[in-house]
Specification:
231 residues; binds adenine; Alpha/beta knot; five-stranded parallel beta sheet; elongated; two-stranded antiparallel sheet
């Protein structure tokens, strides 16, 4: 699966993609991540990616033309009923905005079936609305709060989607007992040694007894009761 990120801050992604499971997945050839600088698709000598808002107001708005040019260079497109459409079926163009559809595990599972995701990171006070209206297939928000831009949302989405692609994380993790029938995840509390930790004399932080009992049925019941299902 290919991820193409369009941003005016490509450096934000460098460290993360070079120092994580994501890096290994790229080395194994399971995923391919390319980060593109939006300014490379501007035509003026100052590489202007934003401009003043029509109607007034403070703050700058990311321009539609460089976004159109960058997306056009990353996949084959056609225009149907004024809207941009990807010619290939398993390619989607996503714009990150706090006004988008709230991201969740189910969306990640759907997106993980695609061949290519083109992720557009907004910045400043906004992105020309024609990007959402005519270019993006989907707008996504990662939560009801406002960030400085779409870069962190892109990282969140890539990590959530990538770990669902077979081979990205170890089999034992992905195919383990934590997977639900609906292909979601069952998240329960975990403990490791020591059985008792004393942060100061007389204070004991203990591991629940049931986990030390060796009784698998009881352990399973306890985990079930304490699980949060994410699907
Ligand atoms: N850009 C700024 N805030 C955002 C959010 N919460 N989700 C997606 N994109 C954003």
């Amino acid at each position: 699966m290919k991820f193409d990120v369009i941003t005016i801050f490509p450096e934000i992604f460098d460290f993360y993609f070079k120092h994580s499971i994501i890096k290994k997945a790229q080395e194994k050839g399971i995923i391919k991540i390319r980060v593109h600088n939006l300014r490379d698709w501007t035509l003026d000598k100052h590489k202007t990616a934003d401009d003043k808002a029509f109607g007034g107001g403070r703050g700058m708005v990311v321009k539609v033309e460089p976004i159109f040019r960058s997306v056009s260079s990353l996949t084959k497109l056609k225009i149907k009923n004024e809207k941009l459409k990807t010619k290939k079926k398993k390619v989607k163009i996503v714009l990150f905005t706090p006004r988008g559809k709230k991201f969740n595990q189910k969306m990640a599972t759907q997106l993980a079936k695609l061949d290519q995701l083109i992720l557009i990171c907004g910045r400043y006070e906004g992105v020309d609305e024609r990007v959402a209206k005519y270019i993006a297939d989907q707008t996504i928000s990662i939560g009801d709060y406002v960030l400085m831009g779409g870069e962190l949302p892109a990282l969140v989405l890539i990590e959530t989607v990538a770990r669902l692609i077979p081979g990205v994380i170890g089999k034992s993790e992905l195919l383990g007992e934590r997977i639900t029938k609906k292909k979601g995840f069952r998240e329960y509390p975990q403990y490791t040694r020591p059985e008792i930790f004393e942060p100061k004399p007389g204070v004991k932080w203990k591991v629940p007894k049931v986990l030390l009992s060796g009784n698998h049925k009881k352990i399973e019941e306890w985990r079930k009761k304490r699980s949060k299902i994410i699907e």
